[in-house]
Amino acid sequence: MKPVIEPHPWDLAEAEALELQGQLAAKVIKEDKFSEIHYVAGVDVAYEKHSNQLIAAVVVLNASTLQIVETATASGFAQFPYIPGLFSFRELPPLIKALEKLSMEPDLIICDGQGIAHPRRFGLACHLGVLYNIPTIGCGKTRLIGEAGTIERVRGSCAELIDNEEVIGCVLRTQSDVKPIYVSIGHRVCLATACEWILKLSPKYRLPETTRQADQLVNKLMTKANNG
DNA sequence: GCGACAG
DNA sequence: ATCTTGTCGC
């Protein structure tokens, strides 16, 4: 699959990236805008320890059985430093290369990082969703910004993630007595629907199967690249 | 100035 | 993200 809007350059200065985020953030759709979801994809990137080499992967799952339908990967070199708030400019280039190799178009993509739970309401999930005009959900293991109250210990419990009086996401417990994860709107999916999907995709572990499968794939390839 | 800071 | 040992529990 390929982006649907005019591609923008990635070799940007920090100030230019910030301005671009502000412009693209206006395109984010925060309501459900999709029909049937049969295929859900997960994306992830692995970094090599002492070089800037990285490996990106996309894993598409059957939304009902959670079985792998197709995978695609790509390797490259980081061209942008890790700057909190500009994460997408570091990980999207390799992810786009992997997505380009995908023969099909997923109905929903789960991202390893935030959606609108971001300083300028434009995290990785939003960026990917807007570029491809595809439904996306941000699912992070830790928080970038925002505050939340306490959460019950049972699976399914959640608390609103707030920033400046605004609900930017949800801290969701996907497994009882396990540290919660941070869910936020990426594109074309409302927060309630996003949480429903993340719970459905996390029947057994803390993280959704989509990100777990993508994570396992990139790490397997990274290990293989170093050793055998 | 100080602390926080997706992966 | 990556580095990094043992340990508790099913």
TrEMBL record:
<protein>
    <recommendedName>
        <fullName>Endonuclease V</fullName>
        <ecNumber>3.1.21.7</ecNumber>
    </recommendedName>
</protein>
<dbReference type="GO" id="GO:0043737">
    <property type="term" value="F:deoxyribonuclease V activity"/>
</dbReference>
<comment type="function">
    <text>DNA repair enzyme involved in the repair of deaminated bases. Selectively cleaves double-stranded DNA at the second phosphodiester bond 3' to a deoxyinosine leaving behind the intact lesion on the nicked DNA.</text>
</comment>
<keyword id="KW-0479">Metal-binding</keyword>
<keyword id="KW-0227">DNA damage</keyword>
<feature type="binding site">
    <location>
        <position position="112"/>
    </location>
    <ligand>
        <name>Mg(2+)</name>
    </ligand>
</feature>
<dbReference type="Pfam" id="PF04493">
    <property type="entry name" value="Endonuclease_5"/>
</dbReference>
<dbReference type="GO" id="GO:0005737">
    <property type="term" value="C:cytoplasm"/>
</dbReference>
<keyword id="KW-0255">Endonuclease</keyword>
<dbReference type="InterPro" id="IPR007581">
    <property type="entry name" value="Endonuclease-V"/>
</dbReference>
<feature type="binding site">
    <location>
        <position position="44"/>
    </location>
    <ligand>
        <name>Mg(2+)</name>
    </ligand>
</feature>
<dbReference type="GO" id="GO:0016891">
    <property type="term" value="F:RNA endonuclease activity producing 5'-phosphomonoesters, hydrolytic mechanism"/>
</dbReference>
<keyword id="KW-0460">Magnesium</keyword>
<feature type="site" description="Interaction with target DNA">
    <location>
        <position position="82"/>
    </location>
</feature>
<dbReference type="GO" id="GO:0003727">
    <property type="term" value="F:single-stranded RNA binding"/>
</dbReference>
<dbReference type="GO" id="GO:0000287">
    <property type="term" value="F:magnesium ion binding"/>
</dbReference>
<keyword id="KW-0963">Cytoplasm</keyword>
<dbReference type="GO" id="GO:0006281">
    <property type="term" value="P:DNA repair"/>
</dbReference>
<keyword id="KW-0540">Nuclease</keyword>
<keyword id="KW-0378">Hydrolase</keyword>
<comment type="similarity">
    <text>Belongs to the endonuclease V family.</text>
</comment>
<keyword id="KW-0234">DNA repair</keyword>
